[in-house]
Amino acid sequence: MKKFLPFLISVLSISTLIGCSKKKEEVAPKIEVVADFENWAPDFQTMKISYGFGKVTRNEEQKFVHGGKYSALVQPLGDKTYRFKPTFYFPLRSATFEFNKSNLRKYTSLCCSVYNDNNFEIPITIGFLSEISTYYNNRRADGETFNLKPNEWTEIEYKIDLDFLSMFFNVEEAPALYFEFEKQEFYDVSFAPKIYFDDIYFVLSSEERTFVETFSLKENEICDFEEDFQKYFLSVKNALSGHLSFDITEKTDDVTPTSGNKMLHIHSKGPNKTKWNYWSHLVFSQTYMKQTDMAKISIEELEHQKWVFCYDIMVKGIDEEQIVPSFYTKVSSNERGIALPRVQNGTWQKCEIVFGAEYPNASPASPTVVIDDAYILRIGEFHFSIPEELNEYDIYVDNIHLEKREGI
Ligand SMILES: [Ca+2]
């Protein structure tokens, strides 16, 4: 029996809705519908797709409808020219449609029914955006991946882990729910896989849930790479040729961390076939940087204390390399990169950046650069900017921290 979920009544209790509740006879959980696709607005109208996504249409073929009369037919493509995977999302708050589903403490899980009308498995990742910045460049917390089996319905239950999600955004104000596909091997919608979505809803908790803040750093630590959660805030922003990858590693045969047991390892795969001067970036997210002690430095302290940003770095497999520490403000295009001495092969080098002091500028815009209060009080991302080379080589980083010294 199929049930129609009227979108105007967002909180329902439906005994026949199969999804998170395994047995029909049990008391059904209370739910809050995100989208059931019965109406154009708000379901299809608020659904946003990434650039080069493919196509979304309303389906009325009953075989592919889970509840009511309609579902959403989603056809992701593989856009070669764009680095993001095909993604769609639903904002969890809308003034126009007067809904607010952004307090995740009210929910235990997110459920949906998905039909994979193809002869192959399709993985899909579900999670939350930590920020809706632009249409294309969304920031996200790592989601959970589900495999959609061929030619059948998959009932998905994504459990909402508040401890984890609270590291990325305020869980009482989650901006949006996303669904992400891998890039498909199809570049024309007429060949794209067909996947049907229906009955996307939150399961309500009987009371607002509590959570534990798991994000904690040592005093003056920027990143020592010892804590598991730190990897979630690192990413690579590759130039078009995509030469960088990273992991957090324990000591290797010939490299030992300078602090604790773990360090950052960046691999530059080379060779550069393009012969263009490409720079890629290892990025520490703004969300992360705002939770370090760097974000707690006040103007008074900057005037009376010498604050130093320190880290240890090594390259292996290349004679020397220019690796540029770059500070950003909240406006991510606003960057200051410092041309520190080149990093030499095979030995740890301690790098120091004194806030407020002049350094050679890595960009030709002006000869010198200063990391001043504008960059400390309006803290944004921190990057290691790394040029693409003909060689394959490795970079190791450890013990990024602040030191407070007497005198200016
Ligand atoms: Ca370490």
Q: In percent terms, what proportion of residues is strand?
A: 35-45%
Tally the structural domains. 2
Which CATH top level class of the largest domain fits? Mainly Beta
Largest sheet: 7 strands, antiparallel
Structural summary, described in words:
The chain has 408 residues and is mainly beta. It has helices spanning 40-46, 162-165, 286-289, 299-304, 373-377, and strands at residues 11-13, 30-35, 48-49, 54-59, 71-76, 87-91, 93-94, 99-100, 107-116, 122-131, 139-140, 144-148, 152-159, 176-181, 195-204, 221-223, 234-237, 244-249, 263-268, 279-284, 306-316, 320-321, 324-329, 335-337, 343-344, 349-354, 358-360, 368-370, 379-387, 393-405. The strands form 7 sheets. Strands 1, 2, 4, 5, 9, 13 and 15 form a 7-stranded antiparallel beta sheet that branches. Strands 3, 6, 10, 11, 12 and 14 form a 6-stranded antiparallel beta sheet that branches. Strands 16, 18, 19, 21, 26 and 30 form a 6-stranded antiparallel beta sheet that branches. The relative contact order is 0.13. The structure holds calcium ion. Calcium ion (CA) is lined by residues 224-226, 257, 259-260, 262-263, 398-399. Calcium ion (CA) binds next to strand 30.
